[in-house]
Design a protein that fits this description.
The chain has 394 residues and is mainly beta. The protein contains 3 helices and 21 strands. The strands form 4 sheets. The chain has a 15-stranded antiparallel beta sheet that branches. It has a two-stranded antiparallel sheet with strand order 1-9. Strand 11 and strand 12 form a beta hairpin. 29% of the residues are buried.
Length: 394
């Protein structure tokens, strides 16, 4: 029994020593990371222009208002009647309010926001900045049901009618987006992009710089519930669009310091997509959209096995205003993947920060615009936000 107790004691001591050793290694790793972040923050900066605070830790409380608009445009041609239609489905949810926090060491940290607006989705981001670089990642997912639907009809090239109506669509549209942005500052010795947006450093004198930036953006626009079949018929069966887009751009930023502690920043960067992969998922239907109501009494019943009507035809024509009287049958078609032409996007930012002692307040705004197109369909996503922040250095 004593031997067993001694063995247990030895094993316990060994486990404790291993735990202490592991904890020591983790502590050393953390110290190495902190040393690296300290050296990155202080490296090659002109201290007459950029001040690196001695206190490295920061905690920020934020209030954010986020707005987003999605426009889905579709053109339809009917050569047999020389008619043409331009349809637009627009989603503009109300501004979403959220509260959150950012915590980090030097320029590196993470943030999380809790939405105060129903069905506004969740927002998560990571960011890291140094003297000459910045990296940011954000993730968002939400759904929307209120939409505006409009159409303009043409006959023989002349406008024949116009229609617009707002309301709730039958089933929600889900929108997901992930955004990764990085930039390099050419005049990092005297200009800091982080001074107005990340507050890891303090701009002491006015300065500007050219920046080169790159973004990776991916998003999905999904309204695949069959209750939305009318919009799918308009869009030739399209029910989901997924985009992967890489952009590069050259921009300019300027920090204006009217007096000590206050910095006002403006930055603009047009970007050009160098990789634009669009994946389209489609349904096929037992109906097809036509410009006029046709005689459809002789079609009989639909056979889902042969995918034909009783008279042998595969599709039954309908007019948008009438809708189908029979059950709508649908099935998946092969997905289409397209590498579309170059797209011009834009990144605009404004920021104001005031520092005193170990505290600061800030106001930031950002605007992003992304466009992707496939044949006669085009989706434009515009996202903007403004946020107020209060932070303390520890």
């Amino acid at each position: 029994m004593r031997r067993a107790i001694n063995i247990v004691g030895i094993v316990t001591v060994c486990c404790l020593l291993c735990s202490l050793n592991a904890a020591g290694q983790i502590k050393r790793r953390i110290q190495q990371v902190q040393q690296y972040l300290d050296s990155t923050a202080k490296a090659k900066v002109d201290q007459h222009y950029i001040e690196v605070p001695e206190k490295p830790w920061r905690v920020i409380l934020r209030y954010k208002s986020n707005g987003i608009a999605v426009n889905y445009d579709q053109e339809l041609d009917f050569p047999e009647t020389n008619e043409h239609s331009e349809w637009k489905l627009s989603f503009e949810p109300p501004m979403a309010s959220s509260v959150g926090f950012w915590v980090g060491y030097r320029g590196t940290g993470l943030s999380y926001y809790y939405s105060l607006t129903k069905n506004a989705g969740r927002y998560f981001s990571l960011s890291s900045t140094g003297a000459k670089y910045g990296l940011a990642f954000r993730l968002r997912r939400f759904n929307v049901t209120k939409a505006t639907f409009g159409a303009v009809d043409f006959v023989n090239g002349q406008k024949s009618g116009e229609y617009e109506q707002s309301g709730n669509i039958p089933s929600p549209v889900w929108i997901r987006s992930a955004y990764l942005n990085g930039y390099y500052v050419f005049n990092g010795r005297r200009y800091s992009q982080a001074a107005a947006y990340n507050q890891s450093v303090i701009q002491r004198r006015s300065a500007g710089s050219f920046l080169i930036g790159a973004t990776w953006y991916q998003s999905s626009f999904d309204y695949s519930d069959i209750n939305n079949y009318v919009f799918m018929l308009i869009g030739r069966g399209i029910h989901r669009i997924k985009v992967h887009q890489a952009n590069i751009g050259l921009g300019y930023g300027y920090n204006f310091v009217p007096f000590r502690g206050l910095v006002i920043n403006a930055m603009t960067m047009p970007t050009l997509s160098v990789y634009n992969r669009v994946k389209i998922d489609k349904y096929d239907f037992n109906y097809e959209l036509t410009p006029e109501i046709g005689q459809v009494d002789d079609y009989g019943k639909w056979d889902p096995q042969t995918k034909t009507w009783e008279n042998g035809k595969s599709k039954k024509p309908i007019y948008l205003a009438t809708g189908p009287n029979d059950m709508v049958y649908y099935w998946d078609k092969d997905s289409e993947v397209d590498y579309s032409a170059l797209q011009l996007n834009v990144d605009l930012r404004l920021g104001i920060t005031y520092n005193w002692k170990n505290y600061y307040v800030g106001l930031q705004a950002q605007f992003n615009n992304f466009t992707y197109k496939k044949d006669d369909s085009k989706v434009t996503l515009t996202e903007a936000f403004a946020q107020m922040a209060f932070g303390v250095r520890l």
